[in-house]
Each structure stands twice: as structure tokens, then as C-alpha cells.
Design goal:
Length: 683
Amino acid sequence: MENILKLLPGVSFNNELSTQYNVRGGNFDENLIYVNGIEVYRPFLVRSAQQEGLSFVNSDMITGLEFSSGGFQAKYGDKLSSVLDITYKNPVDFSLRVQGSLLGASTTLETISKNKKFSSINGVRYRDNSLFVNTQQTETNFNPKFVDAQSYLTYRFSKKYHLSFLGTFSVNDYQNEPLTRQTNFGTINNPRALLVFYEGKENSRYNNALGALKADYIINDNTKIDVTASVYHAQEEEFSDIIASYELGEIDTNLGSENLGEVTTSRGIGSQINRARNQLDALIFNLSHRGKFNKEGKSLEWGIKYAHEDIRDQLRESEFIDSAGFFVRPSEPGFVNNQPEEPFAGDIVAFESAQATNFVNTDRFSGFAQYSQQSKLGSHDIYFNLGMRAQHWILSGEGFENNAQTLFSPRGQFSIKPDWKKDILFRFAIGSYQQPPFYRELRDITGTINPNVEAQKSVHYVLGSEFSFNLWNRPFTLISEAYYKDLTNVNTYTVEDVRVRYTAQNNATAFVYGFDFRLTGTFVPGAESWVSLGYLQTEENIDNRGFISRPTDQRLKFAVLFQDYVPTIPNLKLYLNLVYNTGVPGGSPNNADPYEFQNRLRDYRRADMGISYIFADSKNQYPKGHWLHKFKEFSFGFEIFNMFNNQNSITNTWVRDVDSQRQFAVPNFLTSRILNVKFGMRF
């Protein structure tokens, strides 16, 4: 489902292995995700996309979703960028769905009792990313196990009172033993290669469980209230010891040589040692009440919530760099080295290290109230929503002083549908969005907690329109939006793969502006497609040094989702995903000053195609005795990922030339072309 979101304008991330996404200049931690009104969380310690495995959301269990990329209502929480509101199904009949591919398998069971009072939907998924990872340039012994089980149960005591339970449990067991790597880079006139030989392995495990109980009570036809209690528990650990010995060399380009493409001359040798012993235990408890009153086109909604977060974290990680036989020391702090006149007897110090043990507790009290109304302005239809959110949060823990902050966030939306011949709708939204720090935002790059970090603040201005029309005798809609965000109290960060590392200081201001266009319609009857185009610019001013691009400054986005079928064989269907994103700033060494290093990663280009044949569905049912009679749905097909085999990269590895002492950025390429075979059936 997240891969479909990335085809929308304003939503992007240049890594097909990840389910994380950036929205209009924000990062992964700035997106809200709800399932049936229950907020869900992503793993804390994951640092690379190939460790992620499965996303939280099981797409086979979804009956509807709403997504807002900015300017959303006060009833949604305190995040800066977006909200994804997902509704899981309440089954009305028995159904069993089974799907499988070379990437994994899943099954979904829907049941309902004879008296229609009890219903359940249960899903189990298994994912194996080996097919993707084995196409990368690092040869590994890769053994991932990503398993997920979810259950949504509903019991209807009466027409007015319902009780629901959402339970999830996921295990991501990531074991990786890298062996060798060769990456060719450079220019035609000066080709180079990086050879790496690895020792050691990494073993990371992420266990996440969620249990939520929700009671809905319908007082009358106009009023509904609910109470929800949920507990989220995460136990995560990263254990790794990796020694990488590298050789930077020149390549034999002589077409008649027996050693064509092999390294002939070494320009640099060295090694790198990475060690991690990270463990985290997070327990999050939520208790909330919400209500809604509707009458004659007017609506009043309210809610209150209490959340308690208990985080226990032990961080132990270090990186040693040996360049041509000498350990490279960090630039800070300074040291005196008078070799060879005087022997240097200083300790061997890690180039980068983080060691900390943190016990952090946060209590959050929040509430909202909003009023909306549909009415007329002359002959024009109008809609408006006005709301206010408030939050008071208290930070406590061991080794630092307590801190507290109170926030108020007014928000409003207005829409008008003029009484014109053309079917067009205009809308405007403005609001305050303040994001109190979660645990990650309190921890700086060394692992130290800064209790004085305050909420980041953003004011959204969104102006949009929807224009519906017919083209080629088919319905189409053009959705356009222009937006501006004014950010203060910004907590700056760096991004390496999917790991976000904060400075834990509110020492910057920033802005985001851009526009989005999406043309959606049925290019062929019964199959929706769309074309997305977006442009954004986001910059930040750190300590009044001037504005520079933020790590998510994704200037241009173009994406296509196209679905088609053969007119003479309507059961033979095709989908095509095309994505082009310009490169974001990044790929620099971790200790580089962003004001001195503003290079961008290469542009991201990718095309995926899938072809499937529908043997049975609601339009194709077979009589008894036919082998397809027992199937409500049955399909078989294949997918080609990265169809044109584009070499995309998300990070760089930095190596040093022993002669010139220059550092070279060697791209870490993502996945190559992959063929996947899949099937799906429902009984």
C-alpha cells in the first residue's frame, strides 16, 4: 500500500525496499498512521531498508483509507506532515484469501457468526527480501525472517453497542553475513573500482506487539461516542561485528586484454570495523475518548487522550577506520602528535561512537474540538471546518531534569463548489501543526538525551482545486494544490538510508513550498490510472548561518500508475508504475558540515510492470464440476521490478586514495532488475 502512496505527488522516498515515505519535505517521523482510530508506530532501531521487512498495514484487510498530505483537521494528532487513516473490514460473509510469490506469502480469513453478532478478520504474512537483496552488489549469506499476524474482532451486543479488538504481532529476524563486494564507478576516461572483503555478521531482531480494545456506543441517530485503550510493546536489538577490508583501484579498460574489467593498480587500501550492541524496550499506553454529533449538515466532534511512553534504551556502537595502516582519529577533540620526534602513545579512538543508557518517560494529555458545516452561499455549496487541538506533555527520566510544555494548535478548512456549468471545487486550509518530541528526537548523535528539546512548529497554507470533466467519453479529475509551510523550532537531522539522526536542538528555522498535480481517471473502463507531477523546495537556516537545502529537498517528482487490459481478452490485465525523482542532498560523510557539503545523490528512476490473468472473479463464475467453481477469485501472473535496470543509490561509501588523500564517494546501489511470479486465490 505504501508503494502506491509513493506514486502520489508530494509523497516520495528513493528506496524501493522501504515502506517509509516523506511528505512535502518532512521525514518519516512526521507522518501519522491510524488503523480504525488507533495510532500505530514504526520500529525504532531500523537503520537500513532491507531490515524493515513488512509494513504495519495489511492491505488485504483494508476496506477504506483517507490520506492527507497537509492542512488536515484538528481531530488528527500532533505531527508536522501527513495523516493516513485506515479502516479495517467488518466481514459480512466467510472468505479465505491466499496469496504467494517469490517474495513471500499471506493468508486472510474472514468469518461471521450465524446471528451476525460476531465477526473477525485475521491475516498472517511472511516476507523474504532475499530476491531483492541478492541483486545488489554485495554478496551475502542473507537469512531474513519477517512474519506478521493481525486480528480484528468485533462483537455487536446490540445495534447501539459494539466492542472491537485489534491485535498485532510481528517478528523481524534479520541475519546477514556479507562476503564480498565490487562496485565500478568513475568516468569512461578514469574508471575505478572498489573491492571489499568482509568478515563477521550482523543479527538484528525487532519484535512488536499491539493490543487495542475499542467500545462504540451509538446514543441516537445523531450522536456516537467511543472509548479506546491500547498497549504497544517493542523489543528491539541490533548485534553486529563487521570488518570490511577494501581496495580502491584502477580498472583494465583494454578491450583485448584477458583482465578486462579487473583491478590492475591499487590506489588505496584500508579497513573499517563496525560494532553495535543496541537494545531498546518501549512500552506505550493510550487511553482515549471521542465523540461526534451530527444534525442537519452540522457536525461537532471532540476527543481527549492520555498517553504514557516508557523507553529503555542501551546504545553501544562504534566505527573504526584504518586507512593505509593508520587508524583515522575523529576531528574532535584535538590532540598533539609530534611523531617521529616523539612517540604517540594515545589510545586508539573510534572515528565515530555512541555510548549511552537512557530511561525516558513521557506523559501526554491532549484533546481537540472541531465544528464543521455544509451550507449554501447564494447558489454555491460551501463547507467549512474549524477546530482546536491542545496538548500538555511532561518529560521525566534518569540523569536529567524534568521538562514540560503546553501547546495550542488552531486549524481550519474551507471549500466552495461554485454553481457553474463546469464541475469544479476550490478549497483552502490553514493551521498550526506542532510536533512534541518523541524519543528519537530527544536523542542526539552520541545517544545523549537533551530534555530541553521543545515541539517543532509548522504553519500550513494549502490552496487547491478539483476539476472533473470528460475526456474520450470517460470521466477524469484533475487535482491541483499549492502549499507553503513556515517551520520554527526545527530539530535538524541527517538521514542515512532509513535511519534519522537528530541534533536534539531547536536551533533552526525552515520553509517548504511547492505544488502538486494529479490527473486521475479511467483510461480504460473499470481500471483507474493516474499521472502525478510535483515540485517542492525546502530549506533550513541553522544558527542563523543562512538557508541551505534540507535532507528531504526532493525538487521534482513525476509518477505514473497505468492499468490496462486486452480488449479481446479482458481477463489479461497489466499495471505499469513509473517513478522519476530528482536527487536529494546527502551521501556525505556523517561528520561533514552541511554548509560545506551540499552535493546531491543521483536522480531516482524506476519502472515496474506486472501482467496477470484473471481465471475467476465476480464477473467470471463457473458451474459445478468445473475446476474453477470453488474459487471466488483466482489469478496468476508475473512482475518485473526495475524493468530498465536503472542503477539507483541511496547512500555513498567514502574511501581514501592513498596517494592524493582524496576521498571518493562510491555509490551504494539499490536493487537491479528482478522477475517475480505471483498468484492469488479467494474461496
